[in-house]
Each structure stands twice: as C-alpha cells, then as structure tokens.
Design brief:
Length: about 220
Amino acid sequence: MSKLRVCCFALSLDGYGAGPDQSRENPLGVGGLALHEWVFPTRMFQAMQGKGGGTTGIDDDFAARGFVGIGAWILGRNMFGPVRGPWPDESWKGWWGDEPPYHVPVFVLTHHARSAVEMQGGTTFHFVTDGMDAALKRATAAAGGKDVRVGGGVATIRQYLRAGLVDEMHLAISPVLLGSGENLLAGIDLLRLGYKCSEHVPAAKATHVVLTRAR
Ligand SMILES: NC(=O)c1ccc[n+]([C@@H]2O[C@H](COP(=O)([O-])OP(=O)(O)OC[C@H]3O[C@@H](n4cnc5c(N)ncnc54)[C@H](OP(=O)(O)O)[C@@H]3O)[C@@H](O)[C@H]2O)c1
C-alpha cells in the first residue's frame, strides 16, 4: 500500500523548517541554509547537482533513502518558488533549473490556478487548487503503487500531519537555532496522532529521527 512520507526534512533545534522573510535571495528564509549543511556534502546531493564524489555514511544513506520508492511528490506553493498571489505569467518554473531532481509528477498546492509545466527528465509540475485531499488523491494515483513524498514546506507538511495522513517522517535535526520562521510542530500533538520514534541516529552534522504512525 502506498505510503505518505516526509523525508530529509531539516529542522533547527528550536523547531523551524525555514527562517523568516523568504525571498528570491533567501529561498529558505534568513538563516535557513544552515539547516541543510548535513546534506550538501553527501554523494546523493552532489549527484543531484550533476557532480561526482561526495561523502558516504549516515547522512548520505538518509539522503538516498528519501528517493527510494517515491512515485510522486506534493509541494506547497512557497517551496515551489518566491512568487506569491496570482501568477503574473508562466515564467517561474521552480528553483531547480530545466531538469528538477524529482523525475516524477509533482503536485503543487496553491489557491491560484495554472497550467501544468512539463520539465526535462520526467518531472511535471501540476498545480492543485482544490485542496490537500485532492492533491493526495492525484499524487497517489500518479505514483502507481509507489509512495508519495511530501517535500514541504512547513505549512504543507503541517496540514498532512494534523490530518493524520503522514505515515512516516524523517527529520534531520541540525545543531542551529533560527529564533523565528516557520515552525514545524508547534501546536501539533504527535503523540495523540499516534506517532512514535522508530529510529534515531546521530551524525556529526545532524541527528536523524524517524517518526512513524500506526495505521
Ligand atoms: N527544512 C526543510 O527541509 C525544507 C524542505 C522544504 C522546504 N523548506 C522551506 O519551507 C519554506 C516554505 O514553507 P511554507 O510553510 O512557507 O510554505 P509551503 O508549505 O511551501 O506553501 C504554503 C502555500 O501553499 C499553498 N497551499 C498550501 N496548502 C494549500 C491548500 N490546502 N490549498 C491551496 N493552497 C495551499 C498556499 O499558497 P497560495 O495560497 O499563495 O497559493 C500556501 O500559502 C521555504 O523556505 C522552503 O525552502 C524547507
């Protein structure tokens, strides 16, 4: 049965998944880049940049796991880009260049309709305006029995968590404080929702934690 998974989601010690004031210059919010220091050197991340080499070990294993068995993604519109409000034109096609690292259908939640955008390498961005359940239904159908990954950002993951729909969530907790920004878990009672910690692995640049929910 297809699972809904959050993978490789980087979190600050004070619970933020993005810093404040997201913009084209600071897509992860001010200070947010520091959350991802664990992944940048990995072999997996380097390969995504079209480069060879990179580190192997715990961080790389978790980075690679996040792509195994994934047949579709769900993203929030803020993760897709810095444009807010109605789309002024069709020019913004994501942060990731002509060939994004997804290689499967990607469903972007937004209140502002837009035609689908087909990219090189198998990624097509579909814009979903009829809500989180519709996005999940379409993503699950597109995944053809594989899992669906909720890529983020914070608001999007929070919705699926609150609804008890996330089966598994891997967090990479980075040793940094952001002070403000988008908090992932504030006000969400994971215990009541049925989650438990099924794995925790310390590494030099992050502590990896996997939370799973009994179905
Ligand atoms: N820490 C990590 O590992 C990680 C991973 C991924 C992303 N991020 C970061 O997270 C940040 C983005 O997160 P965020 O919380 O600001 O926003 P987000 O979840 O990416 O997007 C939120 C927006 O998506 C649209 N949306 C969400 N749910 C919807 C629904 N049910 N129906 C219709 N539209 C819906 C709305 O946009 P409209 O109403 O404007 O259309 C909403 O304002 C970025 O800085 C990104 O880089 C961090």
